[in-house]
Amino acid sequence: MSTYKQRAANRRNAQKSTGPKTEQGKARSKMNAVQHGLTAAQAVVIEGEDPEEFEAWCADYLATYRPRTPFARSLVIQLALESWHLQRVERLEGALTTGCQQVKRDEVEASFDEAYYKPLREEAERRCDESIEKKPDAPLIEKMDNHLFACLDGTYDSLFEKYFKEVKAEAKERGHNPPNVVLTAAELADVYQTGALNIFLNDKISDTLSKLNRYKTTCLNNMSRIFRLLEQEQKLTEVIDVSAPEANA
Questions:
Q1: Does 147 have pLDDT greater than 70?
Q2: Torsion (CA) 42, 46, 49, 52 in degrees, nearest 10
Q3: Which residue, of 2, 61, 171, 187, has the fewest CB within 10 Å?
Q4: How far apart, in whole angstroms, are the C-alpha atoms of residue 245 and residue 73?
Q5: φ, ψ for residue 5 (rounded to 5)?
Q6: Higher pLDDT residue, 166 or 30?
Q7: Rounded CA separation 132/146 (Å)
Q8: Which CA distances in Å does 155 have to 73, 122, 135, 136?
């Protein structure tokens, strides 16, 4: 069994090592730090994340903090896990904001189309109604029955497509074309700002954002606690290193 003097000497010698010098060697030694069960990617990485990126993430932390005891090593790994969770939350927040902005942009662009297509659809529907009713003076109940049967057997949909195509062709002949929706940079910026604002106006989305922020706070608090434990472990290890030679003198 090794003595305190031997272990202390081993630690001092290890600190003098400069490690591999080539990029290939650095990459190999970097991955050596995560070859154990505590950083099993399968237990942490979710769909859409890269297991190799996670392993490299943990390796960076181990290489940076260079833990000298098993307990310090476990703390560094936990620190890497919390930071991995933290950057995942930040990605989710970004995706949430981007999604709301895109929805608003789609609504604005659709409004241009709606102004053009709504009267065309209404005209196509009017022609469908006239074709199905056939008898303008027929009782209302008979007209309703005709509409019902036309909707059930698919006749209405077929007629609508036919008349809608005709109406669009007639509009084109008159020189009316669908709008070419191109938002200026300033308009697009306003749209995106409004979309981001919808995060706070929509109760469900706002609640989701609040939960993400609470989880982010939890991650940061956990990281702060782990940092304190690492500092205490480092001080304790230094005390042992200093006192070990005296204990074995």
A1: no
A2: -10
A3: 2
A4: 24
A5: -60, -45
A6: 166
A7: 6
A8: 72, 17, 17, 19
Q: Measured between alpha carbons, how far is residue 141 from residues 97, 104, 126 in Å?
A: 51, 42, 18
The tally of domains found in the chain comes to 1
The answer to whether 120 and 164 are in contact (CB under 8 A) is yes
DSSP 45: P
Burial letters 223-244, b for 16+ CB under 10 A, else e: beebeeebeebeeebeebbeeb
Q: What pLDDT score does 33 carry? A: 42
On the question of pLDDT at 86 being above 90, the answer is: yes
How much of the chain is helix, strand and coil, in % rounded to 5?
A: 80, 0, 20
Which pLDDT belongs to residue 127?
86
**Of 196, 178, 182, nearest to 104 (Cα)?**
196
Return d(Cα 168, Cα 181) in angstroms, integer.
18
Single-letter amino acid code for the residue at 105: R
pLDDT for position 153: 65
The dihedral through the CA atoms of 160, 165, 170, 176 has a sign that is positive
Residues 6+ apart with CB under 8 A from 222: 78, 82
**Residue range(s) defining the domain that contains residue 217:** 4-247
